[in-house]
Every structure is written in C-alpha cells, then in structure tokens.
Design brief:
By secondary structure, this protein is α+β, with helices and mostly antiparallel strands. It is globular, with a radius of gyration of 14 Å. It contains 3 helices and 8 strands. It starts with 5 loop residues before the first strand and ends with a strand.
C-alpha cells in the first residue's frame, strides 16, 4: 500500500545534495525557503507540486527529509531511503513501514538502516 507521505533521515548530507538528487529523481525543485530551523521547497512533478521539508540535525547528526505527498515515485519510506542511499552514498534511516501515534512506543524505535554495510533493522531511540 502506498504511504500518504515519505520521511527519511539522512546522515552527512546537505540540502544542496538533496536538491540535486530530488531534481534528478522527481523533477525541478524550487528555491529553498528557510523558516526558523527548517527549509522548505516544492518539487514540480507531473502530478502536481510536492511540498518538501528539510530539517537539519533533526535527531543528532541526522537530517529529516519529509515529502508531503503520495505522488512521488516511491511507494514508501523504504523505497525512498534505498534510492537516497544509492544516489547520495550516505547512511539513511527510515521507519520499516507506516507508523501512527496509536502504535506502541517500542514500535516507534524500530528503524531500517541502509549503509555501505547493507540493510538491517535496528533499534533507534530518537527521543
């Protein structure tokens, strides 16, 4: 099932590298607008604009990339994380599937780690 949005966590990448990757993968990216600690832009996809939020150092050294649309070329966070790792060659983490507030807290700590070591499920305490 297609997720309603995509969120991944990227280590050691800036929004310039992210811009290049998103432009190649999804379409033209507008200029980033800084709003407090976050950066926002929009991708002009063939299905309509995709709002994007980049939060540097959202969790320690990890940067959050949030695509607020189900109109990307990825069905879920994992597919996007795999594509990000392939394009950027930096470690990427994502939830193993959709997640909701109603889920148990231990489920919230389950993550998929994608790196040069491969892909594995880990426990990551983000709070």
């Amino acid at each position: 099932m297609r997720q309603p949005d995509i969120e991944i966590y990227v280590k050691d990448a800036d929004h310039n590298a992210i811009t290049e990757w998103l432009s190649a993968a999804l379409g033209p990216v507008s200029a980033w607008r800084q709003q407090g600690q976050t950066f926002k832009c929009s991708i002009a996809s063939s299905d309509g604009p995709i709002p994007v939020t980049w939060l540097p150092k959202a969790v320690g050294k990890w940067n959050s990339l949030f695509l607020e649309s189900d109109m990307t070329s990825w069905d879920d966070d994992l597919a996007c994380a795999r594509a990000a790792f392939a394009a950027l060659n930096v470690e990427v983490r994502c939830a193993p599937g959709g997640w909701s507030e109603e889920e148990a807290e231990e489920q919230a700590d389950r993550w998929i780690r994608i790196s040069s070591d491969g892909e594995e499920e880990i426990t990551w305490h983000t709070t």
